[in-house]
């Protein structure tokens, strides 16, 4: 449960779900309302120390544009590592990075030079709303990678559902932080 934004209207305490407005699978966009200031939400969506509490199992990077690093997913014995490069870091407003993640047909090694030609752009936009923040995550550049239609659709569907789950985890993590 959480708050979702659709067609400029905020609805709270509803299950998050997918809106398939972009049926060409070019980008994914999901939103959730978080009861915290944009500055607090920014710290949680950008900092490696917090991001491991709700998103990835390990994270190594600096929160400065151009910084390269990695995300790691899964148990240590079967850990999957993916490279990231921070693109934009505007406290209280936006955090974005480039990456390539499963089920992409080819994963790049950690340390790879990530560009619009070989990776996707993930952006967390933060907009003050009432006493909280509307968090909109966008994963863009999917269609531009030239994947076969079946691969494109699988990636899109997997990540559209995945971002819903991740935003739900963000909401839960933020609630735990507020309760401390």
Structural class: alpha+beta
Unreliable runs? 13-22
Rg, Cα atoms, Å: 16 Å
Q: Quaternary status of these chains?
A: single chain
Number of domains: 1
Strand order of the largest sheet: 3-9-8-7-6-5-4
CATH superfamily annotation: START domain
End-to-end span in angstroms? Answer: 21 Å
**Biggest sheet descriptor:** 7 strands, antiparallel
Mean pLDDT score: 87
Percent helix? 10-25%
CATH class: Alpha Beta
| Strands, total number | 9
Q: Counting H and I runs of at least 4 residues, what is the number of helices?
A: 3
Question: What would you say the CATH architecture is?
Answer: 2-Layer Sandwich
What characteristics describe this protein?
180 residues, alpha+beta, Alpha-D-Glucose-1,6-Bisphosphate, Chain A, domain 4, seven-stranded antiparallel β-sheet, two-stranded antiparallel sheet, 24% helix, 36% strand, globular
Explain this structure to me?
The chain is of the alpha+beta class and 180 residues long. It has a single domain (2-179), classed as Alpha-D-Glucose-1,6-Bisphosphate, Chain A, domain 4. It has helices at 38-46, 48-51, 149-179, and strands at residues 2-6, 9-14, 27-34, 58-60, 68-73, 80-90, 94-99, 120-129, 132-140. The strands form two sheets. It has a seven-stranded antiparallel sheet with strand order 3-9-8-7-6-5-4. The two termini are 21 Å apart. Residues 13-22 have low confidence and may be disordered.
């Amino acid at each position: 449960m959480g708050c979702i934004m659709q067609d400029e209207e905020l609805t709270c305490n509803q299950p998050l779900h997918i809106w398939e407005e972009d049926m060409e699978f070019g980008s994914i966009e999901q939103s959730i309302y978080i009861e915290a200031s944009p500055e607090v939400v920014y710290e949680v969506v950008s900092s490696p120390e917090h991001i491991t509490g709700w998103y990835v199992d390990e994270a190594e990077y600096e929160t400065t544009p151009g910084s390269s690093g990695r995300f790691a997913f899964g148990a240590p014995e079967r850990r999957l590592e993916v490279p990231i490069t921070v693109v934009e870091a505007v406290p209280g407003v936006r955090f974005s990075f480039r990456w390539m993640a499963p089920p992409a047909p080819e994963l790049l090694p950690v340390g790879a030079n990530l560009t619009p030609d070989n990776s996707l752009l993930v952006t967390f936009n933060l907009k003050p709303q009432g006493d909280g923040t509307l968090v909109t995550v966008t994963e863009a550049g999917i269609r531009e990678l030239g994947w076969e239609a079946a691969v494109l659709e699988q990636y899109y569907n997997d990540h559209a559902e995945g971002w819903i789950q991740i935003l739900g985890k963000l909401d839960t993590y933020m609630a735990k932080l507020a309760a401390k």
